[in-house]
Design brief:
It catalyses: S-methyl-5'-thioinosine + phosphate = 5-(methylsulfanyl)-alpha-D-ribose 1-phosphate + hypoxanthine. The chain is an alpha/beta fold. Helix content is 27%, strand content 25%. The structure holds hypoxanthine.
Length: 245
């Protein structure tokens, strides 16, 4: 089955990917974040798209053309999507060092093009989104983490915020009360658009900081970048094990 990998912060390129072709796809929704790289990693073909792409610098989370990204991956024939998200942790059990495989999300984003049904498609679907991530794909990712001996947590609620700023301490308290374990900026509308296209989708989260107000330390981009390096190495170990399955 053809696999699409959507990389986020820290995964602007995929170490070890032997690139076979680069596809500059145009879609009815505009251009995706970058030309999609078709390549081989761990003996398996995959299609790689960095969601923050952009030739003129990283595209911020609220300006990513999620519809074009998903549409372009479908054009490539992708049948499953494995997405990476850098996140901040609210839950004390989810501090950096383990990958988190969320099972639920709460969408706090606004003003993003979040559906292919924009009144011009001639269709209107109310997709079932009870379980936003594909359970079978999550199961395969979890098996791969076990095989690779990569530390992970199975199940978390990701709150998806608008960004690009980080939160206030009071906002984080509210997200905690809502039941969020993690906060990220790019999980939506990506997951819902994938559901609209009927492409099974699952996410793996790399925790890069404790969310605002969780501890006394200010959140610094330098600290985030340092943590991201070790989290990305964990992520690549997991991805390679997944591709070898
Ligand atoms: N909040 C929201 N998104 C994030 C964070 C955070 O603390 N860290 C990385 N992405």
């Amino acid at each position: 089955m053809s696999i699409g990998l959507i990389g986020g912060t820290g995964l602007n390129r995929l170490e070890g990917l032997e690139v076979l072709a680069s596809h500059a796809v145009d879609t009815p929704y505009g251009r995706p974040s970058m030309a999609i790289e078709e390549g081989v990693l761990s003996g398996r073909k995959l299609f790689f798209l960095h969601r923050h792409g952009g030739s003129g610098g990283p595209i911020p989370p609220h300006l990513v053309n999620y519809r074009a990204n998903l549409w372009a991956l479908r054009e490539m024939g992708v049948e499953r999507i494995f997405a990476a998200n850098a996140v901040g942790a609210i839950s004390p059990s989810m501090m950096p060092g383990k990958l988190i495989i969320p099972h639920q999300l709460i969408d706090y984003t606004w003003g993003r093009e979040h559906s292919f049904d924009d009144g011009s498609s001639g269709s209107l679907q109310h997709v079932d989104f009870t379980h936003p991530y594909d359970e079978e794909l999550r199961g395969e990712i979890i098996r791969a983490a076990d095989d690779a001996g990569v530390a992970y947590i199975d199940g978390a609620v990701m709150g998806v915020v608008q960004g690009p700023r980080l939160e206030t301490a009071a906002e984080v308290k509210r997200f905690f009360q809502d039941g969020c374990d993690l906060l990220g900026m790019t999980g939506m509308p990506e997951a819902a658009l994938s559901r609209e296209l009927e492409i099974p989708y699952a996410a793996v989260c790399m925790v890069v900081n404790a969310a605002a107000g969780i501890n006394d330390a200010p959140i610094s981009m330098d600290a985030i970048r340092a943590t991201l390096l070790s989290e990305t190495a964990l992520f690549v170990d997991l991805l390679e094990a997944f591709l070898k399955q």
